[in-house]
């Protein structure tokens, strides 16, 4: 993807490591903000997607909240159209809802990811988002 | 406070309303991101403190996570020194821990506030942070 290549030289966000290729298409970065084991039982991370990058379809047994901190990205819930997520917006994802999120082809996208009741399970990964699925956005 | 007056003309952040004067000193703004009643049971807000503003001493029955999204602010846990919170940093506050947070005198401070298990209680407000307490920061 030419847009991904064009941006590949950007440095990793401070404190972040690359997200596992098994569950992501393209390059994404995860910076831990609150690790497992804290008394709130929330695991909180900052996730940055390079242009074109996204995670696999997945669900969270206790749901998840995303808060966009930079850029504009995509969010799609299974069976529904892709939607844009803009800086300052949040999405509350109910337990068990299959979905994915990631950058547009045009720019980096960063969100805070909040996982409640994390000690009881965080995520169930499914298949990758195909190019056809990824390119189905209609404004 | 001259610094507060100097900045009072800044517009409110989009989508925010002023935080209740009963529990805040100075001007702060609260923008709801995830309201009560969502299936994650997390209530998430963006809170912006004008220079010099802070909330009262308080605690959360189920704890709270703060993620700094803009500026540098103060955080103090009862019985401990004030500490600086910088953009990109987070603090995980255990249930029942008495604390306060707010802006420095020098600039606006914005954090995301994450309240887990919100349906079971969010906050217990205590007394205001005095000027003497607020001015006790030592770098």
TrEMBL record, chains A, B:
Protein name from the UniProt record: Cupin domain-containing protein
InterPro entries: Cupin_2 (IPR013096), HNL-like_cupin (IPR047263), RmlC-like_jellyroll (IPR014710), RmlC_Cupin_sf (IPR011051)
Matching Gene3D superfamilies: Jelly Rolls
Residue span(s) of domain Cupin type-2: 46-104
Organism: Hymenobacter lucidus
């Amino acid at each position: 993807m030419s847009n991904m290549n064009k941006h590949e030289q950007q440095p990793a966000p401070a404190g972040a490591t690359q997200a596992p290729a098994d569950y992501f298409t393209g390059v994404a970065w995860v910076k831990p903000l609150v690790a497992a084991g804290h008394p709130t039982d929330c695991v909180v991370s900052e996730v940055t997607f390079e242009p074109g990058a996204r995670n696999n379809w997945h669900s969270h047994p206790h749901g998840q909240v995303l808060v966009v901190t930079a850029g504009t990205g995509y969010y799609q819930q299974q069976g529904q159209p892709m939607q844009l997520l803009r800086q300052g917006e949040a999405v509350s994802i109910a337990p068990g809802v299959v979905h994915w999120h990631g950058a547009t082809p045009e720019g980096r996208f960063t969100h805070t990811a909040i996982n409640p009741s994390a000690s009881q399970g965080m995520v169930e990964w499914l298949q990758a988002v195909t190019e056809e699925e990824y390119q189905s956005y209609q404004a």
